[in-house]
Amino acid sequence: MRVAMNRTECALTKQFAVGLICVLGIVSFSPRPAEASWDWGAGFYLWALGMDGTLTVRDNPADVDISFSDIWDNLDMALSAHVEGKPADGRFGFFFDLYYADLGKELAAPPGDFSMEMAFVEFAGTFALGENTDVFYGLRYTTLDVVLEFDLGIEPPISPPSPILPSKVAGDENWTDLMVGARWNKQFNKRWGFRARGDMAGFGISNSSDFTWNVQLLGTARVGKRAELLLGYRWYDVDYEDKDVGFAMDARLEGPVFALGFHW
């Protein structure tokens, strides 16, 4: 873990995310060739997440409670995109998912301020079990840059207590999880549909998280020949610890999802 965030790397991450979303936008609006043998989909979404749990940086724990109803006050930036493809006459496919957020919040226990840059990158292969169901298997890469700033002279309510509370601690951590899951996609009629996704990851393999689970439920409404709106909710629970550097995250992130998707 580095003592302070590497601003150059953070800037490059943001540039990469913006560039990827721009490329996906261009591709999603491109006309589909008549001879195309693949089915493609792309989406741009906002996950208005809240966070409830404990973050430990350099052995200094802090309770973080951010309600998704206050997300507009705490979210400085969010970028997200999804793309997937499958041969039109095949059962195997893939998807790629990117989410980036920059969060900030005042702390209650101990008093102070919290800020975090967070990114998830997922890449997985899919296998269709039937018309509406597929399973997937792949990797999820998670990276965090966290800063905790404490009010001086305040004793943190933790056990055992720390005799001197530092004014500021900062660090970054990243890990890669093995991910397995399933998806269900049901189109009720020409306009309305429903999608569900669930996965498990980590399993304490190597430097991965001890265990992570993720559930997403979305209602869909087609608004054109290739476009649809999606509205739903997502839960993401992570338990990760790196004892060597005194870093840990035991938290649940959840909140509504708003998305615009395209198919061609």
Task: Compose a concise summary of this entry.
This protein is mainly beta and about 260 residues long.
Could you explain how this protein is built, in words?
The protein has 264 residues and is mainly beta. It contains two helices and twelve strands; from the N terminus they run αβββαβββββββββ. Helices cover 10% and strands 63% of the residues. The protein has a ten-stranded antiparallel beta barrel. The termini are far apart.
What are the main properties of this structure?
264 residues, mainly beta, 10-stranded antiparallel β-barrel, 2 helices
Shape: globular
Helix content: under 10%
Sketch the topology as an H/E string, one letter per element. HEEEHEEEEEEEEE
Estimate what percentage of residues fall within beta strands: over 45%
According to DSSP, the number of beta strands is 12
Main beta sheet strand tally, sense and closure: 10 strands, antiparallel, barrel
Count of DSSP-assigned helices: 2
Which structural class is indicated by helix and strand composition? mainly beta
* Widest sheet: strand ordering: 1-4-5-6-7-8-9-10-11-12
Q: What is the average of the pLDDT values?
A: 82
Distance between the termini: 43 Å
Query: Low-confidence stretches at least 5 residues in length (pLDDT < 50)?
Result: 1-13, 23-34
| Radius of gyration using CA atoms only | 20 Å
Write the layout of secondary structure elements.
Elements: H1 7-28, E1 38-47, E2 50-57, E3 60-66, H2 71-74, E4 75-87, E5 92-108, E6 111-128, E7 133-150, E8 168-187, E9 192-201, E10 211-222, E11 227-242, E12 247-263
Antiparallel strand pairs: 1-4, 1-12, 2-3, 2-12, 4-5, 5-6, 6-7, 7-8, 8-9, 9-10, 10-11, 11-12
